[in-house]
């Protein structure tokens, strides 16, 4: 299969274009062993072995080499994951190197990668022993993500799949997911890497979890640190400019920082920000910008939650074609469409709605040229 055909297959599975290429570029930029550890439990292997094989083959052809861990019952499925050297390669085989001893994990992984094969481990343990092995594996390889595959495809609470679970959250999972959730929660804490995350999803949704911002299952992670800074002279403007201009794919006008802002909510690693201004009708959200990859880490949601808590009366505008407008529609109290814009508000008094719409209608643009990603 040619490289272009492989990319088209990826886009077909993820139903995504721009995000998929961004994630692919990111994954290829890090050391192969840090890309991901993928664990498939027995239920996944029984129900979705072929889907898992297909997705792993696609990752391999994209020159990505996840470390694969199979449940101990998966030994009967290992013929799917490594080549039978007495036969020619077929579509039903995957170039993988099989390991059943874990005393030299890093050496084993390195030997597989040197042969351009996927490292495949058979986990002999279950329960706490399995999670101890996964913890040690992710820690020693400095892996950025553990993807736990199970048939339910995520963690549920009150019958609804939870897209992001904060490790310090008080939300309770449904009883059927309780053991898995608490085990993954402990695993996350024991790895002790701020860049590490755990995604619980299904084998059929593996590529969507990896290559889309929305993901497909449940992401377990620690909430991002968001600071509110009222003195904008204390922050490096070039870094904020880069964040905003990259997110909007437009240049800020030269006089942008001549405005008076009430403050900025800023993620500690400059992955996202929200700039607000004070007005007689409440606070105006001037710019809400999140790094493209960081959107999948819940950075935008963390900023938003803190912002609406700090500024309960808030309004803003977005272009109709802006993809985030659908989400704004869900979180706002009210909205009004006018021309190319949609005006949104939260906590606004009824008598202030028309003055706010007038304010937004007459508001000059801060960015140089319009595009599909502007607000």
TrEMBL record:
<dbReference type="InterPro" id="IPR011242">
    <property type="entry name" value="ArgB_GNAT"/>
</dbReference>
<comment type="pathway">
    <text>Amino-acid biosynthesis; L-arginine biosynthesis; N(2)-acetyl-L-ornithine from L-glutamate: step 2/4.</text>
</comment>
<feature type="domain" description="N-acetyltransferase">
    <location>
        <begin position="224"/>
        <end position="369"/>
    </location>
</feature>
<dbReference type="GO" id="GO:0006526">
    <property type="term" value="P:L-arginine biosynthetic process"/>
</dbReference>
<dbReference type="GO" id="GO:0003991">
    <property type="term" value="F:acetylglutamate kinase activity"/>
</dbReference>
<keyword id="KW-0418">Kinase</keyword>
<protein>
    <submittedName>
        <fullName>Acetylglutamate kinase</fullName>
    </submittedName>
</protein>
<dbReference type="GO" id="GO:0005737">
    <property type="term" value="C:cytoplasm"/>
</dbReference>
<dbReference type="InterPro" id="IPR006855">
    <property type="entry name" value="Vertebrate-like_GNAT_dom"/>
</dbReference>
<keyword id="KW-0808">Transferase</keyword>
<dbReference type="Pfam" id="PF04768">
    <property type="entry name" value="NAT"/>
</dbReference>
<dbReference type="InterPro" id="IPR036393">
    <property type="entry name" value="AceGlu_kinase-like_sf"/>
</dbReference>
């Amino acid at each position: 299969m040619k490289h272009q055909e492989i990319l088209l297959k990826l886009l077909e599975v993820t139903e995504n274009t721009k995000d998929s290429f961004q994630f692919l570029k990111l994954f290829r930029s890090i050391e192969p062993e840090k890309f991901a550890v993928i664990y498939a439990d027995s239920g996944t292997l029984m129900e979705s072995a072929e889907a898992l094989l297909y997705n792993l083959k696609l990752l391999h052809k994209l020159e990505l080499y996840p470390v694969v861990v199979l449940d101990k019952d998966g030994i009967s499925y290992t013929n799917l994951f490594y080549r039978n050297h007495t036969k020619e390669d077929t579509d039903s085989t995957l170039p993988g190197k099989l390991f059943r001893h874990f005393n030299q994990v890093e050496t084993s992984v390195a030997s597989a990668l040197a042969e351009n094969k996927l490292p495949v481990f058979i986990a002999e343990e279950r329960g706490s022993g399995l999670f101890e092995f996964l913890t040690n594996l992710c820690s020693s390889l400095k892996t950025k993500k553990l993807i736990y595959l199970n048939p339910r495809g995520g963690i549920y609470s009150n019958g609804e799949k939870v897209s992001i679970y904060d490790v310090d959250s008080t939300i309770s999972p449904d009883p059927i997911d309780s053991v898995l959730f608490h085990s993954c929660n402990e695993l996350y804490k024991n790895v002790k890497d701020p860049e590490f995350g755990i995604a619980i999803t299904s084998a059929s949704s593996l590529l969507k979890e990896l290559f889309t911002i929305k993901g497909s299952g449940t992401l377990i992670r620690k909430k991002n640190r968001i600071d509110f800074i009222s003195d904008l002279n204390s922050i490096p403007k070039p870094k904020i400019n880069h964040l905003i201009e990259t997110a909007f794919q437009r240049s800020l006008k030269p006089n942008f920082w001549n405005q008076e802002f009430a403050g900025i909510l800023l993620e500690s690693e400059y992955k996202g920000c929200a700039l607000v201004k004070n007005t007689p009708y409440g606070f105006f959200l001037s710019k809400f910008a999140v790094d493209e990859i960081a959107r999948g880490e819940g950075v935008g949601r963390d900023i938003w939650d803190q912002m609406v808590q700090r500024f309960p009366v808030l309004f803003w505008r977005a272009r109709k074609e802006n993809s985030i407008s659908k989400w704004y529609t869900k979180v706002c109290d009210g909205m009004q469409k006018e021309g190319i814009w949609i005006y949104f508000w939260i906590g606004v008094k009824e008598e202030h709605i028309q003055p706010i719409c007038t304010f937004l209608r007459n508001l000059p643009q801060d960015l140089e040229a319009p595009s599909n990603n502007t607000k």
